[in-house]
Amino acid sequence: MAPETSKPSGIFGREIIHLTQADLQDGPNTPGQNRQTAYSEDGLWIGQCEVTARDQPSQWHHHKDYDSIMYMIEGRIRVDWGEYGEKSFEMGPGDYGFFGRKVIHHAQIIDAPDNCRYVFVRIGSGESVVNVDGPGFAPED
């Protein structure tokens, strides 16, 4: 049988990519949320975040042209969002959050004796984090 010569389909082709913690790249960051990038190509951004915002929330920010899926690993946070920051929810281990493009939000630790971490996947393009001065919704381009 002849070897396959066509370009493989899919984001990863015919590969399995393995990364260790040491392979992750720092950023992009928001004050109060230290992120590390595991993968960023072809409209897919995958990483993890250590929330450090204990005494005050992280800076308001949005993820521009990315839809984001967040999975909480450890600790508990409150996420505030909405036109005036009036909406909120809490996330703990095993919880998921689905964030629409350009939805401005921030997070604060509400319970984390040690670490407060989550993993996220983003689908879109361009800058993955835009820090802003306050709540609301980022304008459409």
Name the structural class: mainly beta
Largest sheet features: 6 strands, antiparallel
Name the average pLDDT: 92
Global Rg: 17 Å
Shape: globular
Total domains, how many? 1
The H-and-E topology, N to C, reads as EEEEEEEEEEE
CATH topology: Jelly Rolls
Number of strands: 11
Number of helices: 0
CATH architecture tag: Sandwich
Detail the poorly predicted runs: none
- Straight-line N-to-C gap: 51 Å
Helix content: under 10%
**Which CATH C-level class is it?**
Mainly Beta
- The CATH homologous superfamily name equals Jelly Rolls
How would you describe the overall organization of this protein?
- This is Cupin.
- With 141 residues, this protein is mainly beta.
- It has one domain (21-131): Jelly Rolls (Sandwich).
- Helices cover 0% and strands 44% of the residues.
- The chain is built from no helices and 11 strands.
- The strands form 3 sheets. The chain has a 6-stranded antiparallel beta sheet, with no helix packed on it.
- Strand 6 (76-81) and strand 7 form a beta hairpin.
- The chain is globular, with a radius of gyration of 17 Å.
- The N and C termini lie far apart (51 Å).
- The mean pLDDT is 92.
